[in-house]
Amino acid sequence: MTYTYLPLTQHQAEQIAYDWQYEGDFAFYDMPNDQEDLAEFLDPDKRKEHYYAVMDGTQLIGFFVFEPGQGSLELALGMRPDLTGRGNGTAFLESGLAFAIKQYQPRHIELAVATFNERAIRLYTKSGFEPIERFQQETNGESFEFVKMRLHTGVMK
Predict the structure, then answer these.
(1) Do 157 and 108 touch, CB atoms closer than 8 A?
(2) CB-based contact 64:57 (threshold 8 Å)
């Protein structure tokens, strides 16, 4: 697949927020489950220039959020539910990482993932991320354990 990164439009944000429904334990990632995250995702002023739609041709297949810091980049991402668990993750993630490194040139990239999501943790580890800390976070009306992971990009600034 060839991916294109475009600023996330309001229509795309609403489509992701309301139409993307994950199955089983992964329903944890359905946007309406966390009203604070949902409000930010749907607010164009809060999305700014850091939210990208990932397109394969004319098909919306996912999104990336890039929050730049001092020499670092915080990453969040999501793939359309019908594409998950089918071997698409590596190409999707690697493409997003290449885009992020080219666009922002961070020394390292960090992300946080719920510890129950072993599938994502395997993917991130395979792509070079290493766990750096575990923490509890309130989300979806409960407290969940997350692991923060870091990828050293090799970019020198």
Answers:
(1) no
(2) no
pLDDT class for 33, splitting at 50, 70, 90?
A: confident
Instruction: Give the pLDDT confidence of 103-133 residue by residue, as tens digits.
Output: 999 999 999 999 999 999 999 999 999 999 9
The backbone torsions φ and ψ at residue 151, rounded to the nearest 5 degrees and listed phi first, read -115, 125
Can you give the C-alpha Rg of the chain in angstroms? 15
The whole-model pTM stands at 0.92
Rounded to the nearest 5 degrees, what angle is found at the Cα of 149, between the Cα atoms of 105 and 140? 115
Dig out the tokens for 18 from the structure: 């309301």
Task: Please return the burial class of 80, using the count of CB atoms within 10 Å of its CB with bins 0-12, 13-18 and 19+.
Answer: buried
